[in-house]
Amino acid sequence: MGSTTNTVEVVNVNGVDVEAPESTNTDLASIVTDIQTLVNNHRASIGVNVLTLDSFISNLASEHSRNVAMGVASSLERFSDRQNALVVEFTLVGVYGENTAQNQTNGAGAVAQWLNTPRQRQDIENVTYTYTGIGSYQDTETGIIYYTQIFAEIN
Predict the structure, then answer these.
(1) Which among 13, 32, 3 is positioned nearest to 148, based on CA atoms?
(2) Are strands 131-138 and 52-53 parallel, antiparallel or unpaired?
(3) What CA–CA distance (Å, rounded) separates 41 from 46?
(4) Buried b vs exposed e over 89-104: b needs ≥16 C-beta within 10 Å?
(5) Cα angle at 150 between 14 and 68, to 5 degrees?
(6) Which of 2, 72, 107, 141 is an S-S bond match for 26, by CB 3.0 to 4.6 Å?
(7) Looking at the DSSP assignment, which residues form a beta bridge with residue 53?
(8) Rounded to whole angstroms, what are the CA distances from 61 to 2, 7, 54, 83?
(9) Cβ-contact 134, 53 below 8 angstroms
(10) Residues in Cβ contact with 37 at an 8 Å cutoff, skipping those fewer than 6 apart
């Protein structure tokens, strides 16, 4: 079982200081919380609405992280399947995005990677997104953690 802490640290990402949960969290539930907090702190720091975490979208993200870890799909495969699942569950305005990462030891590392990648940063900063889902999966053999964050505009 991983460790958890309630400590907050300041992380500088691309010249922006944002409060982030302590980056030593290694349990998967804390990783999801860390990613949500860090992404919303960044969005708030640039004047963009914060995202509401949704359990259905998080389940899609978790399933995708697991599939990538198990070699069932690459990080971009089945993108349309996840988008179609959202259309069935919600009324979408047609805006959907997704960020994936691996080989980061914690959620703060995944978010830093995304903020340093132009396309993934656009997903994080997109003003039309209102909901998000976050999932992570750790390969028990390699210890590698796979991360997925899905973004959606939902009516």
Answers:
(1) 32
(2) parallel
(3) 9
(4) ebebeeebbbbbbbeb
(5) 100
(6) 2
(7) 132
(8) 20, 26, 11, 11
(9) yes
(10) 19, 20, 21
**Alpha-carbon span 100 to 120, nearest angstrom:** 9
For residue 147, give the nearest of 79, 64, 57, 70 by alpha carbon: 64
Dump pLDDT digits (tens) for 103-128: 888 899 999 999 999 999 999 999 99
Beta strands in 31-141 (DSSP E): 52-53, 92-102, 131-138
> To which residue do tokens 């959620």 refer?
107
Distances (CA, A) of 154 to 17, 53, 96, 150: 29, 12, 9, 12
Residue whose entry in the numeric block shows the structure tokens 């991360």: 147
pLDDT value, residue 69: 85
Residue 54 backbone dihedrals phi, psi, to 5 degrees: -115, 135
Instruction: Output the CA–CA distances (angstroms, integers) from residue 96 to 61, 85, 99, 119, in the order listed.
Output: 13, 12, 11, 13
